C-alpha cells in the first residue's frame, strides 16, 4: 500500500508540500530530498518492513521446547 502511495504521489510532490507547509517543508518540487513527503512515506515503508522482518524472524527462530 505504501509503495502505491509513493508511485501515485511522486508527481504530486509540490501539491503535498503546499498542503503540509505548516510542518516547515520547503516549497520546491524535488521528491528525492529528505524533507519531501514522498520520502516520509518511503521511510515509513522501510520502518514497517523492518518491524515485520524482525517479528517474523523472532517467531521463526524461537527455540522449540
Characteristic terms for this protein:
65 residues; mainly alpha; 3 helices
Task: Lay out the secondary structure.
Elements: H1 2-9, H2 13-19, H3 37-60
Helix pairs in contact: 1-3
How would you describe the overall organization of this protein?
The chain is mainly alpha-helical. The chain is built from three helices and no strands. Helix 1 runs antiparallel to helix 3. The termini are far apart.
Question: How do you describe this structure in short?
Answer:
With 65 residues, the protein is mainly alpha-helical. It has helices spanning 2-9, 13-19, 37-60.
Give the class from helix and strand content and strand pairing. Answer: mainly alpha
Tally of discrete structural domains = 1
Count of separate DSSP helical elements: 3
Mean pLDDT across the residues is 87
Gyration radius, in Å: 17 Å
| Poorly predicted spans | none
Q: What percent of the residues sit in helical stretches (DSSP H or I)?
A: 55-70%
The separation of the N and C termini measures 37 Å
Q: How many β-strand runs?
A: 0
What kind of sheet is the major sheet?
A: none
Amino acid at each position: 500500500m505504501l509503495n502505491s502511495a509513493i508511485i501515485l504521489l511522486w508527481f504530486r510532490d509540490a501539491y503535498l508540500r503546499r498542503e503540509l507547509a505548516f510542518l516547515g517543508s520547503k516549497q520546491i518540487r524535488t521528491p528525492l530530498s529528505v524533507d519531501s513527503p514522498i520520502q516520509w512515506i518511503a521511510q515509513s515503508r522501510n520502518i514497517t518492513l523492518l518491524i515485520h522482518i524482525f517479528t517474523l524472524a523472532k517467531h521463526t527462530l524461537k527455540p522449540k521446547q
